Amino acid sequence: MKKIVFFLLFTAFSLTSYAQYRWEVSAGATFSDLNLDNVETERGTGFFINAGYGYVMGVRAKTSIVFSLDLLQRKSEIENIGDLDILQVGITPKFRYLFGAGKDRFRAFINAGPSFRINANVEIANEELDSEAYENVVIGGVYGAGFSQMIGEMFDVMVEVGAMNDFVDNFNDEFITGGSKFFDFYARVGIRFRIYDARR
Question: Does the keyword Signal apply (predicted)?
Fold first, then answer.
C-alpha cells in the first residue's frame, strides 16, 4: 500500500513539475428541468458557482484537465405539486481543449466530463424533504463551450455556455415512481488566474 501511495505521489509531482497551472472561479445562471415520466414539469432558473484548478498539458497548452468544486441550485416546477428547489455540491473533473496558439490573448475552448454531486437540500413547495425521499449522490455529465480573453499577464475573463444531464434518478421510487432526471442549460462568466511554472 505504501509503495502505491508513493508511486502516485511521485507521478503527480513529476507531471506537475512540467505543467502550467490555472485557478478559475465562475458563476452564472442555470436553467433546469426535471424530467418525470408521468407528470409535466416546467424549467426553473437557479445559479451555479464553480471554483476550479486546471492542469495544462502540451507544448502549446491546447489541452487541460480542470478539477472543479461546484455549488449548484436546480429549480423546476412540478404540475399540481409546486416548485422543486435542490441545492447540490460536488466535483467535476473536465477535459478541456483550447483552440489557437498558447500565447493567444483570445482562445475558444470546449470541455466535457463527469460530475459527482451530493443533494445537500431538497424542497418541494417550500417544504424540506427527508433524505430517504431522494438519492444522496447524483452522477451526471457536463458539456460546455466558451472562450477566454486575457485582461493582463495573470488574468482571463471566461464566458461559457453548456448543458448538464443526470445519469441516475434524483428521487427514490417510493417517492416518485419512474424517471426523475435533470437536464440543465447553463451560462456563466468567470475570472481565471494563471500561475505559470517558472521552468517553462
Answer: yes
Residue 18 has pLDDT above 60, yes or no: no
6 assigned to some structural domain:
no
Which pTM was predicted?
Answer: 0.80
Give the per-residue pLDDT at 102: 62
Which triple of cell numbers denotes residue 90? Answer: 460536488
- The upper half-sphere exposure of residue 31, i.e. CA atoms within 13 Å in the direction of its Cβ, equals 9
Closest CA to 109 of 70, 77, 72, 156: 156
Residue 14 lies in a domain: no
- Domain assignment of residue 15, yes or no: no
Helix or strand holding residue 13 (H, E): helix 2-16
* CATH number of the domain encompassing residue 159: 2.40.160.20
Q: How many domains, the chain? A: 1
Q: Does some domain include residue 4?
A: no
> To the nearest whole number, what is the mean pLDDT of the chain?
83
Pairing outcome for strands 82-98 and 127-128: unpaired
Better-predicted residue by pLDDT, 41 or 17: 41
Considering only CA atoms, which of 22, 10, 17 is closest in space to residue 150? 22
pLDDT band at 143 (very low <50, low <70, confident <90, very high): very high
Range of the domain at 73: 20-195
